[in-house]
């Protein structure tokens, strides 16, 4: 039994006979996309974990792409009617859009078991545990009975627009050079499954021998890494023409470590 952002108004905090609950079926999974408080945030979905697996994409409150200006959102690619509906309840309706995308990407939408979205953004919940990460959406039932905890909260990030699936990698870069310089470092990943765009790893003072780490939520499952492109730039013209390189770059997949 799948709950697509189950309703908060009139259901939050009510007895289990009234609202969705893990006792309603052998396996209950829930996608929370609009769980901010109804007052004052007009959140339509409930934040409470109520299933065997509760997924909180992007933290479960504010979905990427739902902050577009009203005109661009209403005059949507899907048409005036769907665009208007999305403008009124964009976060709430993301749940069914993620679900429909999950059918197309059976290996996508990995949910990482974690205490909170804030902790998910750190190293603590990466990579997936040895039993693996459940897939949010259509294929979540592959993990029926794999977790013994009463409630399992799972976190992940999604794209701003279709296709919503992203794949999480941890990229660690150690710089080489003779002097520090202000600028930024970008990395693009190439693999057997496809290539990513450039993702920024760090911006600020680039210090040779320092190591910088960043999570990349890539728009493609790159598979086996075949190449990593390292790019850096300094923010202003520097007459000393500094040189900067990468001594090492490590890429770790969230799915298998």
Automatic annotation (TrEMBL):
Pfam families associated with the record: Lipase, PLAT
Residues annotated as domain PLAT: 167-257
One MF annotation (Gene Ontology) recorded for this entry: lipoprotein lipase activity
Catalytic reaction equation(s): di-(9Z)-octadecenoylglycerol + H2O = (9Z-octadecenoyl)-glycerol + (9Z)-octadecenoate + H(+); a 1,2-diacyl-3-O-[alpha-D-galactosyl-(1->6)-beta-D-galactosyl]-sn-glycerol + H2O = acyl-3-O-[alpha-D-galactosyl-(1->6)-beta-D-galactosyl]-sn-glycerol + a fatty acid + H(+); 1,2-didecanoylglycerol + H2O = decanoylglycerol + decanoate + H(+); long chain 1,2-diacyl-3-O-beta-D-galactosyl-sn-glycerol + H2O = long chain acyl-3-O-beta-D-galactosyl-sn-glycerol + a fatty acid + H(+)
GO biological process, one term: lipid catabolic process
Cellular-component GO terms for this entry: extracellular space; neuron projection; zymogen granule membrane
The entry's keywords: Cell projection, Cytoplasmic vesicle, Disulfide bond, Hydrolase, Lipid degradation, Lipid metabolism, Secreted
Database matches in SMART domains: LH2
Main location: other
Subcellular localization(s) per the UniProt record: Cell projection, Neuron projection; Secreted; Zymogen granule membrane
Enzyme Commission code: 3.1.1.26
Pathway named in the protein's UniProt entry: Glycolipid metabolism; Glycerolipid metabolism; triacylglycerol degradation
Domain of life: Eukaryota
Gene3D superfamilies in UniProt: alpha/beta hydrolase, PLAT/LH2 domain
Family to which the UniProt record says this protein belongs: Belongs to the AB hydrolase superfamily. Lipase family.
Xref: PANTHER family: LIPASE (PTHR11610), PANCREATIC LIPASE-RELATED PROTEIN 2 (PTHR11610:SF165)
Protein name (record): Pancreatic lipase-related protein 2
């Amino acid at each position: 039994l799948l709950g697509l952002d189950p309703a908060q108004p009139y259901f939050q905090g009510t007895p289990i006979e009234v609202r969705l609950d893990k006792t309603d079926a052998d396996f209950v999974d829930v996608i929370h996309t609009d769980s901010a408080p109804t007052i004052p945030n007009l959140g339509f979905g409930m934040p409470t974990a109520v299933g065997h697996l509760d997924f909180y994409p992007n933290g479960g409150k504010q979905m990427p792409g739902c902050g577009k200006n009203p005109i661009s959102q209403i005059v949507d690619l899907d048409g005036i009617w769907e665009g208007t509906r999305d403008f009124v309840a964009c976060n709430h309706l993301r749940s069914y859009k993620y679900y429909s995308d999950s059918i197309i990407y059976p290996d996508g939408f990995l949910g990482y078991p974690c205490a909170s979205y804030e902790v998910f953004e750190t190293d603590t919940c990466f990579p997936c545990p040895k039993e693996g990460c459940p897939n949010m959406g259509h294929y979540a039932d592959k993990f029926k009975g794999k977790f013994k905890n009463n409630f399992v909260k799972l976190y992940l990030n999604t794209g701003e627009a279709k296709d919503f699936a992203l794949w999480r990698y941890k990229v660690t870069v150690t710089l080489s050079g003779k002097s520090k310089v202000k600028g930024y470092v970008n990395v693009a990943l190439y693999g057997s499954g496809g290539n990513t765009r450039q993702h920024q790893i760090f911006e600020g003072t680039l210090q040779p021998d320092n190591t910088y780490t960043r999570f990349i939520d890539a728009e493609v499952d790159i598979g086996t890494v075949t190449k990593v492109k390292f790019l850096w730039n300094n923010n202003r013209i520097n007459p000393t023409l500094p040189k900067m390189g990468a001594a090492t770059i490590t890429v770790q997949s969230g799915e298998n470590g």
